[in-house]
């Protein structure tokens, strides 16, 4: 049994926005547990499971890191930013920090509201921290390429934007890529966990047809 954790990037409601669907694929069992353990150990200050929409808001990573108490370059000046935001947006910041206490991702619109209030002088510090986070994340993802029971798959549009919902065709393309990726398995089955989407309840199992 294989499992894919699917997420998306881009605004599917905007025809001019570049979009893609991607996922980390693991064979269920010890490797799945090891993957989650590694992500939690190295990037565990971000509420689990990670979501691209949140990671693309720089202030989210900064506030999560500050809440964790971990040391990182720029912590002092970003603490100053957090104090500023708590003064200019006390209620949204209270909601955000309460979610961190519970180990949950804050509401994305609340994060964007707070992000819009960040003074320009803090933006380089936020972008630097976000860049370091993604570098670390890419190193982890790259390391999965060397594991026989884990890999990364991506599907993106390569031509004119189709009419209607853009998401299902990309999910179908991703499924075809995955079928090729697990072709050596004599009877492959895959469980999908689709973040941020409600497809058959957000949890579905697909048997590959040959």
Account of the 3D structure:
With about 210 residues, the chain is of the alpha+beta class. It is about 50% helix and about 15% strand. The chain contains eight helices and five strands; from the N terminus they run ββαααααααβαββ. The chain has helices at about 30-45, 50-55, 60-70, 75-90, 90-100, 110-115, 125-145, 165-180, and strands at about 1-10, 20-25, 150-155, 190-195, 205. A five-stranded mixed beta sheet has the order 3-2-1-4-5. A hairpin with an 8-residue loop joins strand 4 and strand 5. The longest helix is centred in the middle third of the chain and has 22 residues, at about 125-145. It is globular.
- The secondary structure category is alpha+beta
Number of strands: 5
Q: Approximately how much beta-strand content do the residues carry?
A: 15-25%
The main sheet comes to: 5 strands, mixed
Helix content: 40-55%
Strand order of the largest sheet: 3-2-1-4-5
Along the chain, the helix and strand elements come as: EEHHHHHHHEHEE
Gap from first CA to last CA: 17 Å
Low-confidence stretches: 200-210
Mean pLDDT: 80
How many helices? The count is 8
Overall geometry comes to globular
The Rg value, from CA coordinates, equals 19 Å
